[in-house]
Design goal:
CATH class of the largest domain: Alpha Beta
Structural class: alpha/beta
Bound molecules: pyridoxal-5'-phosphate
Strand order of the largest sheet: 2-8-7-6-5-3-4
Largest sheet: 7 strands, mixed
Strand content: 5-15%
CATH superfamily of the largest domain: Type I PLP-dependent aspartate aminotransferase-like (Major domain)
Helix content: 40-55%
CATH topology of the largest domain: Aspartate Aminotransferase, domain 2
Number of helices: 14
Distance between the termini: 45 Å
Length: about 400
Amino acid sequence: MIWYTVKKFNEAIRKSKGRGSMKIRYFDHSATTPVDERVLEAMLPFFKENYGNPSSVYSIGKNNKEVINIARMKVATVLNCKVNEIYFTGCGTESDNLILKGIAFANKNRGNHIITSKIEHPAILNTCRFLENFGFRVTYINTDAKGMIDLKELERSINKNTILISIMAANNEIGTIEPLEEIGKIAKKYGVYFHTDAVQAIGNIDIDVKALEIDALSLSAHKFYGPKGVGVAYINERVPFITMQDGGHQEREKRAGTENVPGIVGLGKAIELADKNLVAYNDHLRSLRDYYIEEIQKRIPYIKINGDLEKRLPGNANISFRGINGGKLLSELDKKGICTSSGSACSAGLLSPSHVLLAIGVPSYLARGSLRVTFGKDNTLDDVNYLIDSLEEIVKKLR
Ligand SMILES: *Cc1c(COP(=O)(O)O)cnc(C)c1O
């Protein structure tokens, strides 16, 4: 059994090294991104010579505490918050859990009501379901056909027991950018804490937590050319919350466990690059995305573009192809070396249509034939033309 497992593992590693001769064209940057060369370079010394535990007293340990705090400063600068409001976690999902559960349990004497939306990531929706089992009440508000949350419904849903509003900054499936400023104002008016899952937004939109009156925010390095397995929870210092992971005194006793030093260094470098290149990357993504949509509209009949066309992440295109099975479409594209997704990565493989598309009123027969293409900084016009040609051919064949 053990021998067999080791053999399988080695095989998988070997396969991932020599992927054959087919060129891979990657259009799934909302699922994850490749690590930027500069980020990898910054991380490497912390796997090898600088491996000390940040809690140790000798210099190769202690120095790493400094390094972590430099990364913390970089994140705080980009978000415009205080350094002591940044907590490093293991991923975006963990940040969402820490913030929602941590704030809910610490504030349950004030109230037991939470407001979120129907189009959140499963990291939020399933955490809310968990909290419902512990006596919290959750309101899942609607969005319009473009995926914009209903601000009037949001305000009407607030009552004297409401402690927290959690609305994502940008949607991972249809790219809709939510009106954070207006939500922040409403939350402030009623004295309710405001959290935003900004995992898709970082690197695409400028988020100033002070200006937008955001009390808590989640982000994840692997969505902006950083490594997997490291995230951030920003929690304003005046917001009470409890830890979800007990142990040592790391992260000011709010998130125990020896710090992922290489990961944190990578996150720091990645957020610095994301911030510096935001406008340039956006321009590039938007031009590829607009070209893609224009060509598909010209060349393939019976399609529907899902989500808002303006208030949308620059690299996101989500299109439903009538009469097409999304799963089949993905595997035909895969045969041509094209990576895309149908709905979110988490629901890929499952046949059920995306909860986001259903929530914005896309009928399930169209939702099943949807394709999410998310462009990245390294995609070229040549790649996009290959994608468009392949899609035209495959859709014709499958119909
Ligand atoms: C990817 C994603 C997450 C989860 O982040 P992980 O680091 O993969 O756990 C949460 N929310 C949104 C909107 C995402 O896109």
